[in-house]
Amino acid sequence: MLAKWLSHNETNYQKLFYLIAPLLAFCCFVNTLEYGFVYDDFYHVVKAGSVFDDWSIANLKRLLTTDFWSFLTQNLSDEEQKKSVYYRPFLLLCLMANYAYAGATAWKWHITAILLHVVATSFAYQLLLTTLLRIKSAVSEKQAHWLTLIATIVFAVHPLQSESVAWISAYANALMAIIIFSSLLAYLKARSQINNNQRIFLLLLSVLLYSLALLTKETGMLTALLLFCYELILLKEELSWRKHLTRAFILGLPFLFVTLLYFFLRFKFLGAINSEVFSIDFPEFSNITQETQLFTLPIIIFSYLKNIIFPVSLSPFYPVAHVFQPNLENFYLPLLLLLVIAIFLIIVIWRNLIARLGFIWLFVALLPTLNISAFTPEDLMHDRYLYFSLLGAGLLLAEGFRTLNSYLITKENKESNIKISFWPLRPSLTVVLAVLLIVMMASAIKQNHIWESEWSFWLAAQEGFPNSCIANKELARLSFAENLEDQAINYYEQAKNTCPYSINVLQKLGLLYARRGDFKQAEAGLQKVIQISPHPNITSNAYYSLAIVYRLKKDKEQAIKSYQKAIEFNPTGSNAKKAQRNIEELMSNN
Predict the structure, then answer these.
(1) CB 244 within 8 A of CB 236
(2) Are residues 411 and 400 both part of a single domain?
(3) Which range among 70-84, 120-134, 221-235, 283-297 shows the weakest confidence by mean pLDDT?
(4) Are 486 and 462 in contact (CB under 8 A)?
(5) Judgement on whether residues 368 and 481 belong to the same structural domain of the protein
């Protein structure tokens, strides 16, 4: 009955298709509404409350002229203030607007994250369908709807999307996706317009949206990469290569101008286009050579492909490290497998525009995340980096089913005279695809539970990466907050095995050992922090902590000297006044 109705109401079922993927996306992540804040959420929301409540001209000016983390942590103590290489004023503006509605209520932030992903899925459907219809020589309109439906369902419910939706701090991915998809849609519509005024308006709209994408996250540069690939591979039409490239260059000039302006703003406000990344946990990794970066790329790309195809044992952190000395396991074998996959894909996509489009979204969308010089050692690989690539993975899956279906139909016609029904897939393939999508959705719902609380998150991170410095350090912090000092020390010691130069770990361990009366280890750890500290405020904090150790040790003279050093290295910091009061208190007790 349903099949008969659909066969006579194609317009109706096509409208229904438009709603399916967004609805599944909502159902898949609605269980996150009961979750709390996790990891960076406390800095992005809770601790930034006083900053977000300040809509003064001065604060909005700071929003436009400072890096992302400096703006968020401007009202925090010296110890908690952070700097970054991220210039994201539009994202900060959106966070401020969200805070005006949600405050520090977790479920309201989660509903925003879910709805952003739902809207992004809707725009993904519209963009992919528009693109397929734009290259209609490759596929019929009916098949275009089916391919788009399958691809966007994968994009909506794949378990790898859990990090981007269930974690509040990652909802920038969906926000940026809405902007990028809108920019590409406007561009495609501009190219198909006959009216010059409408074409110019849509092109300018596309450029404006591209500007917002750049100001949301650095990976907004993806828009320009995708437009270049669309022009080069998909939209050549009947023009000669010379005329086509000339036209593409003219259309690309506004995007080039915006890109140059963006780099100018980054240089003006951050001091560099691509600043050096410093990690307080891994100070020894501040300068990674290009050779090491190249050696590391194969294992990262191969791991991503494995997670897309077999999304099992997913984790907030992965034990993927920089490859300093390439060997069979960490370089040569992954590189060989990637070359085999690349050759296969080149053969497949050579005459298949649908597979070509899927390849663009899968691999080109991944390129901005492969600039591993911008990431700290334990951030080389995350599920959220694949947000856009999953649209390409979904399209390749859909095209694979379509190709297999064509083979089965051809074989069926040769063996019998059965009339082919209007359904695009054979019943057996329909069942396989349905089961696959249901398993994806169930896995995503299960994966969401990682983000339920701080404990569930960090325990899952440690399970996926037992030697993770960050996971063990954060578990130590949680343990200490619950007065489990022995457990906290054990976690910090595990962290120190991985990051022996972590300033944060050494400082926290020093204070814990001091509380237990082990002053020798406490002093040694804090002295090491002072030796390796790259910044005066970190040195100041270390001296302040060392003074606390000496006070517990009842060494008044050394405590005063340490307080004086803390003031010397950061005379305007929050610890300076406290140190001065403590000096006066100690001297008055003589």
Answers:
(1) yes
(2) no
(3) 283-297
(4) no
(5) no
Q: Under a CB-based contact definition with an 8 Å cutoff, are residues 152 and 97 in contact?
A: no
Is there a domain that residue 516 lies in? yes
Count CB atoms within 10 A of the CB of residue 93: 16
Over residues 333-358, mean pLDDT: 85
Average pLDDT over residues 38-42: 91
pTM for the model stands at 0.89
Burial of 276 (0-12, 13-18, 19+ CB in 10 A): exposed
**Cβ pair 426, 436 in contact under 8 A:** no
Q: Helices (DSSP H) in 465-535: which residue ranges?
A: 469-481, 485-498, 503-516, 519-532
Residue 557's domain comprises 454-588
Q: Which of the residue ranges 57-61, 207-211, 575-579 would you say has the lowest mean pLDDT?
A: 575-579
- DSSP 8-state secondary structure symbol assigned to residue 167: S
> For the chain, first and last CA: distance in Å?
95
Distances (CA, A) of 376 to 132, 365, 518: 38, 21, 32
Whether the Cβ atoms of residue 357 and residue 135 lie closer than 8 Å to each other: yes
What's the pLDDT tens digit per position in 445-454? 999 999 999 9
Is residue 292 a contact partner of residue 324, using CB atoms and an 8 Å limit?
Answer: yes
